[in-house]
Amino acid sequence: MIEKTNLDKTNAWPFVEAKKLLRERKNFIEKKGKIVLQTGYGPSGLPHVGTFGEVARTSMIVNALNQITDLPKEIITFSDDMDGLRKVPENVPNQYLLNKNLHKPLTQVPDPFKKYGSFGEHNNEMLKIFLDKFKFKYNFKSSTKLYKSGFFNSTLQIILENYQGIMDIIVPTLGKERQQTYSPFLPICPETGIVLEIPVLEIHKDKSKIIFDNAGKKMEAGIFDGNCKLQWKVDWAMRWYALDIDFEMYGKDLIESAILSTKIIKLLGKNNPSGFAYELFLDENGEKISKSKGNGITIDQWLEYASPESLSLYMYQNPKRAKKLYNEIVPKAVDEYLDYIEKAKSQNELQLLMNPVWHVHNGEIPKEEIIMTFSMLLNLVEASNADNKELLWKFVKKYKKNISEKNYPIFDNLIGYAIKYFNDVIKLQKKYKKPNDEEKNALKALVKTLESCKDEMKPEEIQTLIYSTGKDNGYEENLRDWFKLIYEVVFGDENGPRMGFFISFFGVNETKQLIKDKIK
User: How far apart are alpha carbons 2 and 355 in whole angstroms?
Assistant: First the structure.
């Protein structure tokens, strides 16, 4: 068990949020004897990395709570699948089919993939599949099922009783035109199945019914059992109230919604959950990642190129800073993951609580020795022309004779990821420099230097000889340009591995031949 003094001292953000939650919700939690955390998902498009991030980060807070209190914890993953389909996502098939069903609840829109009963159900299943892949512990809840089963009925009645108070909170935040038509309740049209955004004419609290103005015709709707759903901000407050939520994090773009939902739940007679606003995820162009656009890197793409743990690490780091998510950030994220594992081996308990991989691995940090960085491995894949794990392992074992795949599961997986990433991403972007005569002579001098080297030499000794060769061939004033020349000619990039270390793995003769081939 972690010492209490270290729990008090650590300022790792999951512990900061866990302690804040326990402080803010103390009386409510003690009364019900458990802690309920919620994550939200709008299934109007396929799940993306941002959805994963919300569940991963909430799970990290649960991990921190487990070190502080023995009270049971529950993560509710809530799908707003009764929401109307507002626009057709760009990254799904059968666009015509979806266009025909715009504004219907997502669980009433046909599945364009033709796998499930509805588009909402399809996206819910995709969400559950990828959350299960990461072994998250969560309780999935569907908005449609809770509305239609009557679970929300008692809270819906309380909202109807407070109709005017809710209008007083929301209406001043709307434009003049929207103020004339706004209603917290949205009836589902019995004829078209569409979620209607129409103004209210009369309210019958005793009958739990509302009379709406449906394009000049009076329309009566009961508020129970899925005949009506709530507008977003009111719906969010209703969930907090009905599910007794203690904590929920949300994107920075929902801060305004959270403020209004907080006012509504207080009007209903309960306090709002403890909250945490995180910065948004961006694609390579700095645009917000969107379910409907499908921009940025997907969960499946990341998992083809790197481990789930490296993605969790990326989610852990700087949650209050905007983060770009695209293919090219993967190697850096993987190398940081490996570096934190290495650092953990010499850290004390307090330092470990500050180490991101402690949170990624729920306190069980791997002990595996790190053989090389992912970036270095990518260079090795290129230089060796290896196209399968067995071939690359054979290559590694040639220079590291005492290692076995079964003792290095992280590195074994890393090899497979490196081959896939190099072929899919790096290979397409390579631009090799054609050296001029002066640069060719310098590289030929490097080949000559390597002729005096042996595979048994230490990487530092080889590195020193490379430095000397650069100094003797016109790069004494700027050795950075010397290595840049090597990288651009040999690896097609301005940056590359520490050459002494690379050569000790790749082999002296193999490196000589590699440089000769690139000069030609």
Answer: 14
- How far is 14 from 33, CA to CA, in rounded Å? 21
Per-residue pLDDT tens over the stretch 55-70: 999 999 999 999 999 9
Which residues, 6+ apart, have CB-to-CB distance to 411 below 8 Å? Answer: 368, 370, 371, 372
- Among the listed residues 513, 489, 497, 498, the one whose alpha carbon sits nearest the alpha carbon of residue 434: 489
Q: Are 392 and 380 in contact (CB under 8 A)?
A: yes
Residues 397 and 501 in one domain: no
Rounding to the nearest 10 degrees, give the CA dihedral for residues 20, 22, 25, 31.
180
- State the residue for tokens 């090219």: 328
Together in a domain, 63 and 206? yes
- Token couple for 171: 């209406």
Span 20-34, pLDDT tens digits: 999 999 999 999 999
Counting the structural domains of the chain, the total is 3
Asked if 269 and 400 sit in the same domain, the reply is no
Two tokens at 111? 């599945």
> Each residue of 33-44: b (16+ CB within 10 Å) or e?
eebbbbbbbbbb
User: In terms of domains, do 456 and 418 share one?
Assistant: no
CA distance 488 to 185: 62
Structural domain boundaries, residue 179: 4-282
Nearest to 358 by CA among 368, 374, 344: 344
Task: Give per-residue pLDDT as tens, 191-238.
Answer: 999 999 999 999 999 999 999 999 999 999 999 999 999 999 999 999
Q: What is the DSSP string of 50-83?
A: HHHHHHHHHHHHHHHHHHH--S-EEEEEEE-TTS
Say what angle helices 389-399 and 374-384 make with each other, to 10 degrees.
100
Q: Enter the tokens of residue 398.
A: 């040639």
pLDDT tens for each residue of 432-478: 999 999 999 999 999 999 999 998 899 999 999 999 999 999 999 88
Q: Are residues 502 and 381 in the same domain?
A: no
367 falls within a domain: no
Helices (H) and strands (E) in the chain, counts: 26, 12
Which residue, among 450, 361, 408, has the nearest Cα to 135 in the 3D structure? Answer: 361
Does 186 lie in the same domain as 215?
yes
Contacts of 132 (CB under 8 A, 6+ apart): none
- The predicted-structure confidence for 130-156, as pLDDT tens digits, reads as follows 889 888 999 999 999 999 999 999 999
389 and 258 share one domain: no
What are the CA-CA distances from residue 183 to residues 171, 231, 258, 315 (Å)?
A: 9, 8, 18, 37
Q: Are residues 132 and 38 in the same domain?
A: yes
